[in-house]
């Protein structure tokens, strides 16, 4: 009869296989996405239990240590959709420590990059940069071009968010060369999406739309539903910026259907915000407020400080349009505090609006 340790190992190995399989099905795209999400959701409690056991036993032998450090990699795509950020950070920090101890440098680099993504999502951009640079150094030393491209793309995302857009574009273009060289279509699609965002930040909306259309074609070709939603959403932004608000709404709504289908709450929130922006342009203030409030609820739910700041500022703008100056100022000040804390360049935008409103006669300090 097996002892408790042997039984625990079998349990942990089984659910590691389940995690690999669900992630594999998700990456297949198409109808496999729904199957993967259903299976993952059904087994999530067991996966958590198995990972926790393996990590508690990681100091007792190589087998349990390897199991513990492999779980975050096995579910890399689905964990981003389903796992709370704080829990994902705990998993990855433990996995990095163990991978380093085992001398598994390639896996350590993968975890460093994913931990950077988690910190970036939480708004801690300087910490994210440190982690991406550590991953990049390891991947370059190992001549791992696929992961080097991912590291460059991740760094570019952060620099674009900090307002260093030209530097970001240089990194994206380096990443694209590597991805095309190794045939990484999924990575190429994500990089094109982000490159389009960067061009939009430079007000080159035609070039942005071209990038998003290329990303959309790739995502549909390989069945990448998540990036299909991202590309559609960003294409909608390009249409909006070029003055075609109704076409933008169509793209947002198509993207929103996919985001809800795959359970991507962060993307769902972003699209609700974009819909609010579109209806604001059309002068439909109350409808815009409804979308911004939905975005705020999701940002609170998933712990997205940047999204919360954006939704609060947008709400403030609409409340001002409605004549509610005091509440508009309250929303803007809360948004500014969030952006200042996460070192976002949006803090300056909000401060400029607050300064303008300070001169309004009916706003209380």
Distance between the terminal alpha carbons, to the nearest Å? 73 Å
Largest sheet, if any? none
CATH homologous group name of the domain at 283-365: Tetratricopeptide repeat domain
What is the ordering of alpha helices and beta strands? HHHHHHHHHHHHHHHHHH
Q: How helical, in percent, are the residues?
A: over 70%
CATH top level of the domain at 283-365 is Mainly Alpha
CATH topology assignment of the domain at 283-365 = Serine Threonine Protein Phosphatase 5, Tetratricopeptide repeat
Question: What is the beta-strand fraction?
Answer: under 5%
The assigned structural class equals mainly alpha
Based on the structure given, which CATH architecture of the domain at 283-365 is correct? Alpha Horseshoe
Q: Work out the radius of gyration.
A: 22 Å
What is the strand and helix layout of this fold?
Elements: H1 4-28, H2 32-56, H3 62-74, H4 76-82, H5 85-102, H6 105-121, H7 125-141, H8 145-161, H9 165-182, H10 185-201, H11 205-222, H12 225-241, H13 245-262, H14 265-281, H15 285-302, H16 305-321, H17 325-341, H18 346-358
Helix pairs in contact: 1-2, 1-3, 2-3, 3-5, 5-6, 6-7, 6-8, 7-8, 8-9, 8-10, 9-10, 10-11, 10-12, 11-12, 12-13, 12-14, 13-14, 14-15, 14-16, 15-16, 16-17, 17-18
């Amino acid at each position: 009869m097996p002892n408790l340790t042997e039984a625990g190992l079998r349990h942990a190995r089984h659910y590691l296989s389940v995690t690999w399989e669900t992630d594999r099905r998700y990456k297949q795209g198409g109808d496999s996405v729904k199957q993967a999400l259903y299976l993952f959701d059904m087994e999530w409690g067991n996966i958590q239990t198995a990972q926790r056991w393996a990590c508690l036993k990681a100091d007792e032998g190589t087998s349990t240590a390897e199991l513990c450090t492999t779980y975050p990699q096995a579910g890399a795509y689905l964990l981003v959709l389903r796992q709370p950020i704080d829990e994902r950070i705990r998993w990855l920090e433990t996995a990095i420590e163990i991978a380093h101890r085992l001398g598994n440098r390639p896996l350590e680099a993968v975890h460093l990059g994913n931990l950077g993504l988690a910190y970036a999502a939480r708004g801690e951009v300087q910490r994210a940069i440190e982690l991406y640079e550590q991953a990049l150094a390891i991947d370059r030393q190992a001549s791992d071009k696929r992961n080097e491209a991912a590291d460059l793309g991740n760094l570019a995302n952060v620099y674009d968010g900090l307002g260093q857009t030209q530097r970001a574009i240089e990194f994206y273009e380096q990443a694209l060369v590597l991805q095309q060289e190794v045939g990484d279509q999924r990575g190429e699609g994500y990089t094109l999406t982000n490159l389009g965002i960067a061009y939009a930040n430079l007000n080159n909306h035609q070039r942005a739309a071209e990038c998003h259309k290329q990303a959309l074609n790739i995502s549909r070709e390989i069945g990448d539903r998540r990036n299909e939603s991202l590309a559609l959403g960003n294409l909608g932004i390009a249409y909006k910026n070029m003055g075609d608000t109704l076409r933008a709404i169509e793209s947002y709504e198509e993207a929103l259907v996919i985001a809800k289908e795959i359970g991507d709450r962060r993307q769902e929130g972003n699209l609700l915000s974009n819909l609010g922006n579109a209806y604001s342009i059309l002068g439909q203030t109350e409808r815009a407020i409804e979308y911004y409030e939905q975005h705020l609820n999701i940002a609170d739910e998933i712990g997205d400080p940047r999204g919360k700041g954006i939704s609060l500022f947008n709400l403030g703008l609409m409340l001002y349009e409605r004549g509610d100056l005091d509440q508009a100022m309250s929303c803007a000040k809360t948004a500014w505090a969030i952006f200042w804390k996460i070192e976002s360049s949006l803090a300056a935008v909000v401060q400029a609006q607050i300064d303008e409103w300070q001169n309004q006669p009916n706003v209380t300090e």
